[in-house]
Write a structure and sequence with these properties.
405 residues, alpha/beta, Aspartate Aminotransferase, domain 1, seven-stranded mixed β-sheet, five-stranded mixed β-sheet, 16 helices, 14 strands, globular
Length: 405
Amino acid sequence: MKKSTGMDRATTRKWRPATQAVRGGTWRSEHGETSEALFLTSGYTYDDAQTVADRFAGEAEGMTYSRLQNPTVAMLEERIALLEGAEACRAQASGMAAMTAALLCQLSAGDHVVAARAAFGSCRWLVDNLLPKFGIETSVIDSGDNDAWEKAVRPNTKVFFFETPANPTLDIVDLQFVCDLARGCGITTVVDNAFASPALQRPMEFGADVVAYSATKLMDGQGRVLAGAICASEEWVNETLMPFQRNTGPTISPFNAWVVHKGLETLDLRAHRQSENAVKLGEFMRDRIRAAGGEMRHPGLPCHPRHALALDQMDATGPIFAFDVGSRERAFQILDALELIDISNNIGDARSLLCHPASTTHANMGEEAREEMGVTEGLLRINVGLEDIADITEDMDRALSAAGI
């Protein structure tokens, strides 16, 4: 395998993100293929015994086993790192594999984690259930309260873990403040950036140490495969993450890596167009939701309490927003009246999707935990897709009317 002409790392890092999304991480074999090749292999052969010994000793470059290296996976990792502005990236089998690895690889019994209360249900399960089983202390705070971050710091605090925008309440974290606070206290920030992707937000520009993804979402963007990614400094990836990954094996398949790699080519176009559609749909819905006693949670609209911060941190505010219609009954009436928009718990898809988090993504958290983070019985979360905005709006108009809104 060789990188195509002119594609050394110094060159690719000079390119702008839209170019990196198409050209970054492209390796070509002696055949000179245009589209990146798919390498479906678990192992590799070697010319002689010394070559394999040197590779396993880390004294020579080259592949040893696809749990550790694979050409297709390596291309994806290089492309994501370029888009993120990171020194290194390791792809993972899923978004939750990425979140779990990003935390467990650096935590030990006696350490303390401060986490945002608003998060994907499985991320909260990690904080509320898994970490404490290993003797790791956790505190959950309102991530929109800067003072709360400062007050939660203890002498043994090792990690700040949060998502912005948050799933499904669309809370916005002040990246610069929290990352500066962490850096000053010697705390590692782990940011879940799945709702935005590097096309819309790059937390490392604000000082984040580790950025983790469900690449299933916007990076693939077409509902095809599971994938995750962790971006950080080369030192952190090699010395902290790699021993964990090498020995626990949360490895992405080459096929899934190839699908996501191709999805990245259109990420910038999709993310911005879907963001535009989401703002237009939110503007259409806002007054009707509020007139019915409901609440809009849309960072792209001025009614969001951190609208200005979202615009400052993000290139666009993303395809996802939430709205509260007051009750489960009314929420289900809206879902059941849809004709175009699908009922689905996925996000980041090119298709418009609507779900009821309290009965799906956050159902296993329990009523008390859902209430704490603002996941009410009337909350609906929408992923606005690439369909014609007029068709999306007409479908939502019909569904709202069916619920008496």
